[in-house]
Specification:
Number of helices: 2
Distance between the termini: 129 Å
CATH architecture of one domain: Roll
Number of strands: 5
Largest sheet: 5 strands, antiparallel
Oligomer: single chain
Helix content: 25-40%
Shape: elongated
Radius of gyration: 36 Å
């Protein structure tokens, strides 16, 4: 009166290995960490790129005054350019350190600006100080007042057709010496 085979092995138990749910959770966790790491690297790169661009722009702003300083141009030469600008924000002051390269030599410049807002690049910055250390060791305190060489040029005025003057070749008649 027995029913069934008592000598058959018992059914295999499941759960000895990792479950499918555990594998899915591990994969999602690893993907999440990769995404967070990628976002961190991107924001670090964008921040450094912004500093590099801002430093170059502010260094060029300082170069407007540096190029007009006779002591700097005497020792460094002409065709002055800004290189390797490094921007640092210290409270309300933005500091830019960069190399000033000329046709004769290279010096080190230090410029300080106030009123600049890194979140608002259109906001004007006020130059507080510009110093250039020349290869001779001399430190030049650059004037913050730019010198402009402006001359009054007579305005070019259009004349009526048929009224030819010495600068107007469009109204010239054939045979004139001003004809091209």
């Amino acid at each position: 009166m027995s029913q069934g085979n008592f000598n058959a092995p018992p059914p295999a138990k499941s759960g000895g290995g990792m479950s499918t749910m555990m594998i899915v959770l591990i994969v999602l966790g690893v993907l999440g960490l990769v995404c967070v790491g990628a976002c961190g690297v991107c924001s670090w790169g964008l921040m450094n790129a912004g500093k590099a661009i801002g430093g170059a722009v502010m260094a060029e702003l300082a170069m407007l005054n540096i190029r007009q300083d006779a002591a700097v141009t005497d020792e460094l030469g002409s065709d002055l350019t800004a290189e390797n600008a490094k921007l640092d924000v210290r409270g309300g002051t933005t500091v830019v350190d960069f190399d000033v390269k000329g046709s004769k030599a290279t010096g080190k410049a230090h410029a300080e600006f106030s009123g600049s807002d890194p979140n608002n690049p259109a906001a004007p910055a006020k130059v507080n100080q510009i110093k250039v250390t020349l290869p001779s060791g001399k430190v030049v305190d650059v004037s913050l007042t730019p010198k402009f060489d402006m001359q009054n040029q007579p305005p070019e005025m259009l004349d009526d057709a048929g009224n030819t003057d010495s600068t107007d070749t469009t109204d010239a008649t054939p045979g004139d010496s001003t004809e091209m």
